[in-house]
């Protein structure tokens, strides 16, 4: 009969358990994550064209993500929220998704067919902090502006639901989120 030291046995067993948990959590994280490159669509440089595409694709409108390359909050959203498959699927089914670097020297044509630099376009949308997320309806009219980072993927999905459901006229996003969270926790 083989005699096993109980301390050594516990150490081996706990090591195996740790390895199993680590690899399964890594697998789950990989299964739920996707590249952030899959979140945004290619921007044609013309907002009127993007609005037309959104209409043809039967979407609610266009989401404009105003950020910079060096903004830590923009990078964090791209790394932890935009890479989630459920976020990508939800947003891509409702919006054309455009990433606009407010420090870019490129120009774009806005929804009124005016040619502007990215920084002037950001100023026109009152972007003072990054990230700023602007939702436009199919007519190019502002539906909602979110200033600041949203770190929780579920909360970011709620933001899309808040905008598409017309709740922006009924209540602020904090109240909407509070009701969603209480219902979500009650399940």
Mean pLDDT over the residues: 86
Under CATH, the topology of the domain at 35-150 can be stated as Glutaredoxin
From the spread of the alpha carbons, the general shape counts as: globular
Order of helices and strands: HHEHHEEEHEEHH
> What is the radius of gyration computed over CA atoms, rounded to a whole number of angstroms?
22 Å
Approximate strand percentage? 15-25%
Helicity, in percent?
40-55%
Low-confidence stretches: 11-31
CATH architectural type of the domain at 35-150:
3-Layer(aba) Sandwich
> How is the largest sheet built, in terms of strand order?
2-1-5-6
Number of strands: 6
Number of helices: 7
How would you describe the overall organization of this protein?
- The protein has 187 residues and is an alpha+beta fold.
- It has a domain at 35-150: Glutaredoxin (3-Layer(aba) Sandwich).
- Helices cover 48% and strands 17% of the residues.
- A four-stranded mixed sheet has the order 2-1-5-6.
- Mean pLDDT is 86; it is low at 11-31.
List the helices and strands and how they pair.
Blueprint: H1 6-32, H2 47-56, E1 61-67, H3 72-80, H4 85-94, E2 95-101, E3 107-109, E4 115-117, H5 118-124, E5 132-137, E6 142-147, H6 153-164, H7 173-186
Parallel strand pairs: 1-2
Antiparallel strand pairs: 1-5, 3-4, 5-6
Helix pairs in contact: 4-6, 6-7
Q: Summary?
A:
The protein is α+β, with helices and mostly antiparallel strands and 187 residues long. It has helices at 6-32, 47-56, 72-80, 85-94, 118-124, 153-164, 173-186, and strands spanning 61-67, 95-101, 107-109, 115-117, 132-137, 142-147.
